[in-house]
Amino acid sequence: IIQSSEGSARVFTVTGSALLRIDGGISGVINGDTINVQSGAQVNVNGSIFLGGSGGQDGTLNVDGAGTTMNIQSGMAYGVMCDTINIKNGASLVSRASGSDTMGVMALGGGIHITGGSTLDAGCDYGVYIIGGKLELDDTSRLITNGSVAPFCIVDNTSARDQSEVLQLPGVPSGTALKS
């Protein structure tokens, strides 16, 4: 397990083309913890990723760059839990969690942003789960979910935001309203 200690936020960056295998997961305990996987890095995590204070409330996961891959296989309810997930510039994030009521990726507040020809593949009961944030997918990127309960779930805990403030999906005709 890679875990930050009390004090200040940690930034953990992986670059290069060699495969990094992490058994046991990654856990940050300070708000502002960040993981950067970039520049063609290949990371396999056998466990969950929780970034930020209180197990995932205010951390960021960035997967960036062509050929960069991060694969997560978790035996817990979440593959990834943090505030913000950015997958960009041709990168790929694959997240699987086993059991019932599982979530491939969960973002609290900041949301999930898949841009620049990137891919998020989340296979769990709820593929993508967002509370208070936005799911953004541009027209060059892919979102693959095998959510047996729901491919994605976005919770607006204020009940005051418009659909465009919580969801950006290419190809959805103008005026289409998604309902729960």
Keywords:
12-stranded parallel β-sheet; 6-stranded parallel β-sheet; 18 strands
- State the helix count: 2
Total strands: the figure is 18
Residues in helix, %? under 10%
Structural class: mainly beta
Distance between the termini: 37 Å
The largest sheet is: 12 strands, parallel
Please state the oligomeric state of the protein chains shown: single chain
Note poorly predicted spans.
none
On the 0 to 100 scale, the average pLDDT is: 86
**Share of β-strand residues:** over 45%
SSE ordering: EEEEEEEHEEEEEEEEEEHE
- Evaluate the radius of gyration: 15 Å
The outline comes out as globular
What does this structure look like?
Helix content is 4%, strand content 51%. The protein has 180 residues and is mainly beta. The chain is globular. The model has no long low-confidence stretch (mean pLDDT 86).
Could you provide a short overview of the structure?
The protein has 180 residues and is mainly β.
Detail the topology: elements first, then pairings.
Elements: E1 2-3, E2 11-14, E3 19-23, E4 26-27, E5 34-38, E6 42-46, E7 49-50, H1 53-56, E8 60-64, E9 69-74, E10 78-88, E11 92-97, E12 103-114, E13 119-123, E14 126-131, E15 135-137, E16 142-145, E17 150-155, H2 163-166, E18 167-168
Parallel strand pairs: 1-4, 2-5, 3-6, 4-7, 5-8, 6-9, 7-10, 8-10, 9-11, 10-12, 11-13, 12-14, 12-15, 13-16, 14-17, 15-18
